[in-house]
Amino acid sequence: MTSGIAPVKVVIADDHPVVLVGMKAMLHQDGRWRVVGEAGSGRELLGRLGGCECDLVITDFSMPREGSEDGLLLLRRLQRLRPGLPVIVLTMVHNGALVRGMFAAGAAGVVAKTAMTRELLVACHAVANGRGYLSEPMRKGLEAVPWLDGARSQALSPEAALSSLSPREAEVVRRYVGGQSVSEIARQLSRSVKTVSQQKNDAMRKLGLANHSQLYEFARNVGLSS
């Protein structure tokens, strides 16, 4: 770090202590960054920011804990609490709908946890210099990332993506993630199993979801399921 330049104050959050230790070690090695707060849940992170001055937040996307927010809800709360505060998200999520949703909810950068050791400091420098950052493993799976040039508001939120579905597709998705089988949905809606299955698959394609695991994750983050 150049003498006389104040370090960037960082608050880090992850529900795995070993990840916090690793992040802190990487940031300290660089010298430009100073960790001024740590949190193990969304609630703790919001509490830290309430009484701590910082220039950057690095947080895990999924920190499930009873009574505490994570995911897109946490990102939105962070933006309401500290508008304009840069946030870098660490995540295992790779589906396009949720990655776009992270940027739409206010993230300045998204780093795949599998690439954290290679990319975290690169992302920190990019964000500190006013640029966006998207992890290389995720970038390969997206056709366009306009927010990287400062146009994050153009990113399509999951809620907006959901509105792109037809009413019938949306109904099938809501029922499916709510625990009903394709056969049950078909019987209750008086449609054929083939039709319901096709509507579910069409909805997943429109949302950019590759499998049912991603569908359930998407549903949880937009409030379609508990």
Automatic annotation (TrEMBL):
Residues 9-128 form the Response regulatory domain. Gene3D superfamilies: 3.40.50.2300, Winged helix-like DNA-binding domain superfamily/Winged helix DNA-binding domain (1.10.10.10). InterPro entries: CheY-like_superfamily (IPR011006), NreC/VraR/RcsB-like_REC (IPR058245), Sig_transdc_resp-reg_C-effctor (IPR016032), Sig_transdc_resp-reg_receiver (IPR001789), Tscrpt_reg_LuxR_C (IPR000792), WalR-like (IPR039420), WH-like_DNA-bd_sf (IPR036388). Coiled coil: none annotated. GO terms for biological process: phosphorelay signal transduction system; regulation of DNA-templated transcription. Residues 158-223 form the HTH luxR-type domain. Pfam families: GerE, Response_reg. The keyword Phosphoprotein applies. Keywords: DNA-binding, Phosphoprotein. The keyword Phosphoprotein applies. GO terms for molecular function: DNA binding. The modification 4-aspartylphosphate is found at residue 60. This is LuxR family two component transcriptional regulator. It comes from Fulvimonas soli.
